[in-house]
Amino acid sequence: MTDSERSSPPSENEKLRLARFIQQRLQSSPLKKEELRIVRSYVQSQTPSPTIRHKIDLLLRCIREHAYPQSIPPAPIIEPGAFSPEENEDHDELALFIAGISRYRRELTKVIEIDFQEMHTPVDELLTSLAGTLHTLSSEAEYLEIEAIAKPSRQLENTLNELINSASSSSQAVATLKSIQPEIYCLLATLHRLFPPALISRTPPLHLDHLKFWIENFTTDTADKQAKEVKLELLFSPTLPSLPSETLTLLQHFLIHLIRNAIHHGIESPEERKRSGKPFPPVITVELQYSAPNLLLCVSDDGKGLSREFCKKAGIADPAHCPSEQLTRLLTAPGVSQDTSPSEFSGYGMGLFDIARQLKHVGGNLRISAPGSGLRVVLSFPLSLPQA
């Protein structure tokens, strides 16, 4: 949409379509009631503020460009007890995803509700945080084969990273953020339609078996897709306390990146493993312990560790003797990846960055080391997460 189009009032036809849109979305729209009131006022030709005018423009652009899906699959019908592992294991992973929907909504809604006149967070930080959120969401949705979420979130992630790399000033970064707001709003609407609050509220509390089942399936599925074989060792302390659903979904978000990174970057193919004389199959170990008041999550592998090319480029002579603090700073920076280009299994270097970002938000930390063979990542964060 050009500046002239943005500043011009909507046509009567557009007003009618927007009014109908409001009527249809009144109960399910992620917009707040106050925003809906202002939208109605705009339809009635009252003069809005510049900030509200911009939000109205987003809606009009969505309508003009048909950004909103004409047909979104209906919300899944889930019967009581369907999330019990003993009764239906297929729903375990879906239960984890549904429990984590609120976190994704909060992150995406921040982008929609930005007041560009009074921004308190640097725009480049907002962009990289959004890229991390989209990376995690697309990874989880792709694994669960929820195409209505996986496809748009992955496309948005790719578009956003390309725009981040090309933006050379804060004004360009702001323009980037504004340009993708309609697509973010559309993604929010899809999440809301597929997983409405009523469905989320009916989901029983999660327990540790949900997470264990997901880890086993996710590891096997990721390894199979890359024609690799992996032995998984789960070492969960028998003294672990009961974990809240919010904590379990956060652990899952962390493990999506850590397990996939270990398999893609660390674990060698059977042929490479044989040539180097290493035992087969390779091992990925996931440990979870409780040391009051923190949970300790450790993911390690006995693979090849950091590639020689990556170490040379990063100025690391020997990863095994590189201080953990230096290695952690390097690998959690946005855009840092051992791959030269994104693929199905490796993004734009946003996985570890997103983990570090979320840990900072909840008062946690992480340490990365390369102990001779493979990589070891240790996360520590409070059992009781702060309220959003």
Describe this structure in words.
By secondary structure, the protein is an alpha+beta fold. The protein has helices spanning 3-7, 12-25, 33-43, 50-64, 92-99, 101-112, 123-144, 147-166, 170-194, 197-202, 208-225, 245-266, 270-275, 308-314, 324-331, 351-362, and strands at residues 231-236, 283-291, 294-301, 365-369, 376-382. Helices cover 54% and strands 9% of the residues. The chain has a five-stranded mixed sheet. A hairpin with a 6-residue loop joins strand 4 (365-369) and strand 5 (376-382). It starts with a helix and ends in a 6-residue tail after the last strand. 34% of the residues are buried. Residues 1-7, 26-32 and 63-90 have low confidence and may be disordered.
Instruction: Give me the Rg, rounded.
Output: 23 Å
Along the chain, the helix and strand elements come as HHHHHHHHHHHEHHEEHHHEE
**Main sheet summary:** 5 strands, mixed
Could you name the CATH topology of the largest domain?
A: Heat Shock Protein 90
Gap between N and C termini:
35 Å
Sheet/helix structural class: alpha+beta
Number of strands: 5
With strands numbered from the N-terminus, the spatial order across the biggest sheet is: 1-2-3-5-4
Ranges with pLDDT <50 over ≥5 residues?
Answer: 1-7, 26-32, 63-90
Please, what is the CATH homologous superfamily of the largest domain? Histidine kinase-like ATPase, C-terminal domain
* CATH class term of the largest domain: Alpha Beta
Shape call: globular
The overall pLDDT, averaged over residues, is 75
CATH architecture of the largest domain: 2-Layer Sandwich
Count of all domains: 3
